Amino acid sequence: MNENTDMGRALQATPATVLTVSYDGSGFSGFARQPGQTTVQGELERSLSTVLRRPVELAVAGRTDAGVHARGQVVSFPYDSSVLNPTAFVRSVNALAGERIAVRAVRSAVPGFSARFDAKGREYRYRIGAGPVPPLFLRGVAWWVPRELDLNAMRQAAEHLIGEHDFKSFCVTVSAIDKPTKRRVSLIEVTEEEHLGESSIVVRVVGNAFLHSMVRVIAGTLVEVGAGRREPEWVAHALAACERAAAGPTAPAHGLTLWHVNYAEGVWL
User: Fold this and answer.
1) DSSP letters along 207-250, please?
2) Which residue from 173, 154, 143, 131 is spatially nearest to 218, judged by alpha carbons?
3) So what's the pLDDT on residue 7?
4) Exposed/middle/buried for 117, CB within 10 Å: 0-12, 13-18, 19+?
């Protein structure tokens, strides 16, 4: 039996350390590690490796694009966190990761747990500042659309996307080549919120998994309806077309936030 086999078996028997992470995506070239680029994964792995004094390679619930933010991103790696002081560990990692990344919580999960493959559902929120005055305090996390939007029309349009569908019209074309494009969307809410005196429209999307840029295309499509350029029924035709050109534009990355990831309760130690 060689050393690599022994190490592989040891990792399989090791509980997983699971981190809930927030980040401001504006300073990163996306989540995924890329040579020569500043990424969330790269900074996190560097910080964790320094604190734990061993190499760390992360599994992640969703690889966000450049400019996309996260409030409840989840990452995992094989490590028995019972030996850690959680408060000191989180403080050390955050001190090294930089001001745009914050580890919010640390948990232990069963051996073999993967933040990606064990996820049961994901929630994204897309924020829009609508009207003639651009957002000031929310400008980094909201897409400014310089006209009023019809929220009721957007809600009617969103109803056509609820359920299990082929969302090929709602993703980056090249990302769908020879890959399954059916996904299940359980909820789309369109609400209005106020933060620091600024009003914004929030599109909340919950589903089992998402295609590349799917939520951003949903947001861009709903804005087409809200702006009166399309009728709500057009969304159903766009969905059925299974062709990217049939749906609306891809909304800017900075308005999107990965909000929350769901897991079965039985995975936690």
Assistant:
1) ES---TTHHHHHHHHHHHHHTTSS-TTHHHHHHHHT-GGGS-PP
2) 154
3) 44
4) exposed
Give the chain's residues under pLDDT 50.
1, 3-10
CA distance 122 to 61: 8
Whether 268 is in a domain gets the answer no
The residues annotated as belonging to the active site are: 65
Tokens of 29: 């070239």
Q: What is the pLDDT of residue 175?
A: 87
Same-domain status, 109 and 236: no
Q: How many domains does the chain have?
A: 2
| Amino acid identity, position 175 | S
Give the integer Cα–Cα distance in Å for 214 and 216: 5
Residue 269 within any structural domain of the chain: no
**pLDDT tens-digit map of 174-200:** 988 889 999 999 999 999 999 999 999
> Please, are residues 16 and 111 in contact by the beta-carbon 8 Å criterion?
yes
**Cβ-based neighbour number of residue 156 at 10 Å:** 17
Report phi then psi at 197, rounded to 5.
80, 5
Tokens 């009023």 locate to: 148
